[in-house]
Specification:
Elements: H1 2-11, H2 13-16, H3 35-73, H4 80-108, H5 120-149, H6 151-157, H7 160-183, H8 191-226, H9 233-271, H10 276-279, H11 283-304, H12 306-337
Length: about 375
């Protein structure tokens, strides 16, 4: 992080254009406060929050990539619950890549404000990550409700293919909704449709999350009393599903303190009377919460799930020992070429071998 700050102070357009009256642009400064405080606020956003957001995005990219690769590689742990969590990691990975792209864009250009969205493609990516995050969390919460309220039915009916279909449905609806919202910038007639679609999606996902969490808590309390009725494999299955449900609960807590404030802050600012241009200088201060949420989710998956930890350790060991195995294989090949010629592996063909005891040879046709 200190290296990023030093890099900004040394080579970035801020210092190179500090004497220019046109930089930073006026839209990057909050117009409702005095001018000296505007520049101070911009310096804090540029030299503190921007490097911190970049560091969090890099860590999120690494953690989500490792968790995804480990789960997708270990087929034995690809249960519906973990497949749904993989979809959430894909959303976090998309957010991390987008955050890195925007930060690099700001660091290399003097005409773009931090976290400023320009163009339909950027709005499309931003809305897709937000809508898919809510959709994936709603599906995950509903999956935990079914796993704890109907364990026998869940075990026989909920399969990997069903989880994949749910993931595809969430991403498809998110992509269509984000596409309509992005197209509304060029086609004003879609503005009304965009508002209703996004409002319906937020209300539907929020209601599903709240109702599913309430039902999961009730089912979890009921299973504490009735756990003695289950034994053997069924007892282990319910215990494992409860651990996953607890992990989802922690993910939801992280969502309430990070992702939801990042999504609701611009709505609150617009409600308080701020214009859209006034929210641009403040985006660095609340957008970092979304990047933090994308980092917390894989850490919670890794810390709360023993199978995920084993899969991650396995993939790290495989990468670390891959070069050793290649070296050992090459060493064995070199040693085999140095063997003496009287070893069995270097004997001439059978028809060239001399006969040591002709009296003991027996023809197959004489038997």
């Amino acid at each position: 992080m200190l290296f990023l700050v030093y890099l900004q102070a040394d080579t970035l357009p801020y210092v190179q254009n500090a004497s220019s009256p046109n930089w930073p642009p006026e839209r990057c400064l909050l117009s409702s406060i005095p001018k000296d405080k505007r520049l101070t606020l911009f310096d804090v956003a540029y030299f503190v929050f921007l490097p911190l957001d970049t560091l969090l995005a890099v860590m999120s990219l690494i953690c989500n990539s490792v968790v995804l690769a480990s789960i997708l590689r270990a087929r034995r742990i690809q249960r519906p619950s973990l497949i749904l969590l993989c979809s959430l990691s894909m959303t976090d990975l998309t957010w991390a890549v987008f955050a890195l792209y925007k930060n690099i864009q700001v660091l290399t250009s003097k005409d773009i404000c931090p976290k400023e969205l320009k163009g339909r493609a950027e709005w499309f990516t931003y809305l897709t990550t937000g809508l898919s995050t809510l959709g994936n969390l709603a599906v995950i919460c509903f999956d935990r409700l079914l796993a704890l309220s109907k364990p026998l039915w869940y075990r026989t009916s909920v399969t990997r293919s069903r989880a994949i279909k749910q993931i595809l449905l969430v991403w498809l609806v998110s992509l269509i909704s984000a596409g309509i919202a992005a197209a509304s910038h060029s086609f004003p007639s879609l503005e009304y449709l965009k508002r209703w679609i996004i409002l319906f999606w937020y209300v539907a996902c929020s209601s599903t999350i709240i109702c599913s969490c309430t039902g999961t808590l009730i089912a979890n309390r009921r299973h504490r009393v009735a756990m003695v009725q289950y034994n053997g494999e069924m007892h282990a299955t319910i215990k494992r599903e409860k651990r996953v449900a607890n992990t989802v609960g922690l993910i939801l807590m992280a969502l309430c303190f990070t992702f939801l404030p990042a999504m609701l802050t611009p709505v609150v600012l617009l409600t308080m009377g701020y214009s859209r241009n006034d929210t641009i200088p403040l985006r660095s201060f609340y957008a970092i919460l979304g990047t933090l949420n994308s980092l917390l989710n894989p850490l919670l998956n890794y810390g709360r799930n023993e199978e995920v930890r084993m899969a991650v350790r396995m993939i790290i060991r495989c990468q670390c020992t891959h070069s050793r195995l290649d070296d050992n294989r090459q060493r064995r090949i070199n040693l085999s070429t140095l063997r003496v010629n009287n070893r069995e592996t270097n004997l001439p063909p059978v028809w060239q071998r001399p006969s040591n005891s002709g009296s003991h040879q027996v023809s197959i046709t004489n038997l």
